[in-house]
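Two proteins, back to back. First:
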Amino acid sequence: MRGARAVAGMIRLPCTVCLCLLLGLNQTLAQSPTVQERFGAALLTPDNTIGLDNTVRRGARIVFETREAPVLGPDQNTPGHQLLRQLVASGLAAGNRGDLYENRDRGHSRLPFGAHPQMTYVVYDGALEGQGVDYGLAQVMLFDAPLIGNSSTAVTGPIWRSQPRLALTSPGGARTLYQNYVSGQIHVYPEHRDHDPERGDLLPANTPYVLISQGSSGSDQAHLEALVMIMAAFRPDTKARLLETGLIAPTVQMVYRRARNGIGTRDAYLSGAAHPSVFSADGINLAAMVGLANAITPDAVPPLVRLEVLEETTPLPGVDYFGDGLSEMLFDTPSAIARIWRSKEGTRRMVVTAADTVDPNGRDLTFDWVLLRGDPEQVRITPLTADARYALIEIGWQDPRPAPGTPDILSARIDLGVFANNGAYDSAPGFISVLLPRHETRLYELAPEGGKHPVEITRAAAEEIYFDPMIFPVLPWSDQ
């Protein structure tokens, strides 16, 4: 369902990176020690990185050496590789000089150095390794250069989960991913058991901040190569503009999603097929991704969608749902909002605005609010202003449905996408996600005053249907 598409003029250009942490990053790093690249590697230590005020995060300022290296290794000869070589050789593409790569699984699934010789590899010394700064979810380091990374790891034990699900269910985890995103970092993590026919799609929300690969160890490799090649394919002046505006990671995400196999039209891009929780390697089209990235000119770079919830249904704990200290708010970040449906009520509403979205070059913007997954009969999007920067979203309770493009994987999540178009390109999506408890069966009847009245709620046991213990408490009874 597409709810709104309208035009709005831009009259101001605030900084894209709004978080105080990131606003002060460059200023802090300007006074910090530098990390000198040597032979394609940058060694990080406690002494050449700096702590960022009032956070657990550290920053690194990289000085890149001048060295001659081809953009690709000799064994890569698909049409996409050949196109990238030609563009770099002619000066029409920037290549990967000044780009970072970090492996966060200690070599378990490392990007081969010989495949992308211009990349600078981040290396952590023993002290930082001892603190775990180099391993698993990227939660500590921020860099003054664009970075592609990966970690082919997962959490095991009673609260087993992929690294993305860990981030999305941990306090502050989604905001950390957003900080990485606007500082120019994209990491690839395998879904490892979180997106399979056995249990369905277990990701509690969708975000544009990372890429999640279908599969386990090593499934991230094809996606890493695609991201590195997109980064290399930008025109030199466009890449400089993306770095200046903090838009390089959002633009890489847009190119990756827009140029995948099967996403040949704008309508396809504005659909759930282009924005699943998890991406398979089968959809990667390197030639299309290189071509689209190289076509973007500096005055046409797409904006970053910025969202804010203004009003929403607020249930009462102990009345509308049980669970001491629980909330329906999973997280609010500027480009991804997530809620958990705990309330017994059969409908919910939100008023959301994209008013803070601006184009980096002052272009007029149009907005599309799109249902990406969920029951279209139970979701209604209504623009509240002529420019469609504000929308009312009404959602009715619904049963799990197959995730887009994967009929054998059930999803109990509703995703809405918000896209800004500047007349040249659509932006990367902003997401609004609502997670429903898949282990609950609910019976509603239409109330005389309108809406749905709950009649019965039955909860399956954990051994019958898996539900995330970090989100849903065990309530082994039925409500009538």
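And the second protein:
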Amino acid sequence: MTEAAGPPPPGPSFDASFEQVFREEHGRVVAGLVRRFGDIDLAEDAAQEAYVEAVRRWPTAGLPPNPGAWLATTARNRAIDRLRRESTRDARHAQAALLDPAADDPTGIGAVSGVEGVSAVADERLRLIFTCCHPALARDAQVALTLRLLGGLTTEEIARAFLVEEAAMAKRLTRSKAKIKAARIPYRVPADHELPGRLAGVLATLYLIYNEGYLSAGATAGARHDLGAEAVRLARMLAALMPDEPEALGLLALMLLSEARRPARFAGGVLVTLPEQDRSLWDRGLVAEGHALVRACLRRDRPGPYQLQAAVGAVHTDAERAVDTDWSQVLALYDQLWTLTPTPVVALNRAVALAEVQGPDAGLEAVEAIAGLEAYHPFPAVRADLLRRLGRDEESAQAYRRALELTANAGERAYLTGRLAEVSVNHNPASVGAVCES
């Protein structure tokens, strides 16, 4: 199977807009192929072959009127050709694909073959997320596989999201697909009564897709707006599908309150941290919508991790100026979050709030007690800012250098490089939240 989840390397006359088309259409194409043929490897390979063909044709012929439909149709034809060629495949499988009434629907929105009953899940990609989040797979495998298939993330990007080595993640993905084949896990839309049992995996997947869109792990983009927009779109559909699930509402609120700040997050290719952002650029419509969802979650009184993170976002976006932020409330929310999900990342964000409430000494003590984040770049970045506030410039510089080693994001590297240049001469206290957006 072809390993690359991204588009092939462009040629000299390659149209740069292909990258955008790939990012926008990858999930739709793969989701349609998986549904139609029931084979992940076949879907990925056929999609990749379609992208190769696009790279060959489009630079001279130009973009087709509907690039997504062109890719979907080409990939479907490549898959059918492969099924015809491979004698080891069940011939009836190929015939079913050829006779599938949805095969003439390149958008993948038509009828779903092989589904018993009617499901409330109408979107192709959201259906695939629920399918991948089968209880026979471990939670991290569910999320990683869906990120690969739907988000178009590379193995390296997924490994970064899980804070593991790329080789380990590659093995995890391979084992997941092998288990699906061995266990004959059906590629079908789960019945409505099965949806709540798969909700946690779906929420985790959408959360990580949005995170990659919000601050890309790649070196060439500060943020991937396509992934962020797709995650928000799917989260909206999920919240409408399951309006009585407060965590679905909480995740949507968290995304909207983060998305509202997007226009102010980069300036000249450099990351602009939360305390330094021009708040007049924030999307007040999204802020209001996010706040309304947080209030709706509070009325349900069934707190969960995504709701609490959304509440933190609501506190930040409620402040007209950074100095008006109610850090005591933020700290209380992270204390509550810690009781539900006592992870090192939660501990780091709690330390950020603690430093604002009790001072940098308390924050640094809390940071130094955290284990397991040695390869997580916000960890040395937060530590660097705390050390800077305490006047320990040499140690701060070392921590900034370590943070630079761990991040490939261009905008974030530019920000950290600037901080590193200032650390020996600038002793003015700065909010530790400048690096870790709590």
